[in-house]
Amino acid sequence: MVKVNCLNPIAAVGMDLFSADYAKTENMQEADAVLVRSAAMHDLELPENLKAIARAGAGVNNIPLDKCAGKGIVVFNTPGANANGVKELAIAGLLLASRDIVGGINWVAENKADENIAKNVEKAKSKFAGREIMGKKLGVIGLGAIGVLVANAANRLGMKVYGCDPYISVDHAWNLSRDIIHVKTNDEIYKECDYITVHVPLLDETKHMINTETISKMKDGVVILNFARDLLVNEDDMGEALKSGKVARYVTDFPNAKTANMEGVIAIPHLGASTEESEDNCAVMAVKQIMDYIENGNIRNSVNYPSCNAGICESAGRIAINHRNIRNMLSQFTSVFSGENINIANMINKSKGEYAYSIFDIEIPSTEELVNKLASIDGVLKVRIIK
Ligand SMILES: NC(=O)C1=CN([C@@H]2O[C@H](COP(=O)(O)OP(=O)(O)OC[C@H]3O[C@@H](n4cnc5c(N)ncnc54)[C@H](O)[C@@H]3O)[C@@H](O)[C@H]2O)C=CC1
Ligand SMILES: O=C(O)C(=O)COP(=O)(O)O
């Protein structure tokens, strides 16, 4: 029985895909696989038996990727599965920052007992007047699954859109409207744009990328939107910029103790991916990836191990090995098989950074003895009998 632990609630449409060979456990310490959304995993003890973690979502900064890789635990995410949900909220953010919709709604709530509210609305409304986004310049930093959708949608709403992503993938470039002005540096976005929206992962290089220095390069009265992660923005610097009026509004899906208390901040409680559709898409993708890994050893959309697809095993046995990407690993593996007089029918070896993964299809069913011999090789992190 394969034991699955959910650290966050995962949509039923995904969980229902698990066959009778899988059982849910409340105890992570006995899990073969973990499903997670935003729960922080950095301080959790990772059980020896754990084989895979699937993040039903995009951002993986809540998971200790390297520690997992070092223990032979493959971490998956679900690229693009919640991108439309975030895009729609980011467009809402553009509008919320441009028209005082929140102020206006609050005014109605405060005056709901007023019998003359219908008449008084017409007097009060001038306080909540705003501006339109059509014709304004939007800068999109990070043209991945979400950034591309935001750029294209804003373009269709009549904005002049600039995009920057030094590492843009070919697929995302194909999906980007030809109207988007592709700039090579964020500085061009800072200089030109009335609205700036950030859609990059939180990494050492992107942490605090919005700070006093970068804000100083922006237009006076710029609107900044952050639907990615709070730490992309230095909140003390943002506080100063909001006070001085350099930044007119900061829209964030990641309020923290500081930004939640700042004037000029429009804070949303991390709702980007909280839609029925995104939750379903993420759950289905995460569960399918876990099942393919557990049942066939295949890796799709991992963030710490290479992609590897050996299909369904058609020979008598299959062994999967998570190992370090160092010299002589393959020759040591093949000599274990040849020492046992076992023919290798098929093999795949892939690497990603410091880690590698190999699948061997062999002409006898795999044995514990083989596993032990392979596991004793220096640099091997996990060995698994698939068949
Ligand atoms: N508010 C919410 O509920 C959600 C937030 N997110 C956040 O949004 C982020 C982006 O999500 P996706 O678009 O799905 O990921 P993605 O991986 O498809 O796109 C990220 C893009 O950022 C680019 N990038 C990386 N470093 C960069 C840099 N220094 N400058 C410019 N571009 C850079 C990459 O090349 C990639 O194209 C996630 O990492 C996550 O933190 C994602 C989903 C939901
Ligand atoms: O996918 C992401 O990166 C998100 O931020 C969504 O987080 P959630 O699954 O809503 O906790």
SSE pattern, N- to C-terminal: EHEEEHEHHHEHEHEHEHEHEEHEHEEHE
For the terminal residues, how far apart are their CA atoms? 15 Å
Largest sheet: 7 strands, parallel
Q: Taking strands numbered 1, 2, ... along the chain, how are they ordered across the largest sheet? A: 8-7-6-9-10-11-12
Number of helices: 13
**What is the CATH level 1 assignment of the largest domain?**
Alpha Beta
Radius of gyration: 25 Å
Distinct ligand kinds: 1,4-dihydronicotinamide adenine dinucleotide, 2-oxo-3-(phosphonooxy)propanoic acid
Number of domains: 3
What is the CATH-assigned architecture of the largest domain?
A: 3-Layer(aba) Sandwich
CATH topology description of the largest domain: Rossmann fold
- Tell me the total number of β-strands: 16
> What is the fourth-level CATH superfamily of the largest domain?
NAD(P)-binding Rossmann-like Domain
Low-confidence stretches: none
Helix content: 25-40%
Mean pLDDT score: 98
What share of residues are in beta strands? 15-25%
Pathway: Amino-acid biosynthesis; L-serine biosynthesis; L-serine from 3-phospho-D-glycerate: step 1/3
Protein name: D-3-phosphoglycerate dehydrogenase
Keywords: NAD, Oxidoreductase
Catalytic activity: (2R)-3-phosphoglycerate + NAD(+) = 3-phosphooxypyruvate + NADH + H(+); (R)-2-hydroxyglutarate + NAD(+) = 2-oxoglutarate + NADH + H(+)
Written account of the structure:
It catalyses: (2R)-3-phosphoglycerate + NAD(+) = 3-phosphooxypyruvate + NADH + H(+); (R)-2-hydroxyglutarate + NAD(+) = 2-oxoglutarate + NADH + H(+). This is D-3-phosphoglycerate dehydrogenase. Belongs to the D-isomer specific 2-hydroxyacid dehydrogenase family. The two termini are 15 Å apart. The model has no long low-confidence stretch (mean pLDDT 98). This protein folds into 3 domains: 1-82 and 274-301, Rossmann fold; 83-95 and 133-267, NAD(P)-binding Rossmann-like Domain (Rossmann fold, 3-Layer(aba) Sandwich), CATH 3.40.50; 313-387, ACT domain (Alpha-Beta Plaits, 2-Layer Sandwich). Helix 3 packs across helix 6 (145-156). The relative contact order is 0.12. The chain contains 13 helices and 16 strands. Helix content is 32%, strand content 21%. It has helices at residues 12-15, 65-70, 83-98, 101-110, 117-124, 145-156, 170-175, 186-192, 212-216, 235-244, 276-296, 329-339, 368-375; strands at residues 2-6, 22-24, 33-36, 52-55, 74-76, 137-141, 160-164, 181-182, 195-198, 222-226, 247-252, 265-267, 317-324, 344-352, 355-362, 380-385. With 387 residues, it is α/β, with parallel strands linked by helices. The strands form 3 sheets. The protein has a 7-stranded parallel β-sheet, with helices on both faces. A 5-stranded parallel β-sheet has the order 2-1-3-4-5. Strands 14-15-13-16 form a 4-stranded antiparallel β-sheet, covered by helices on one side. The structure holds 1,4-dihydronicotinamide adenine dinucleotide and 2-oxo-3-(phosphonooxy)propanoic acid. 1,4-dihydronicotinamide adenine dinucleotide binds next to helix 3 and helix 6.
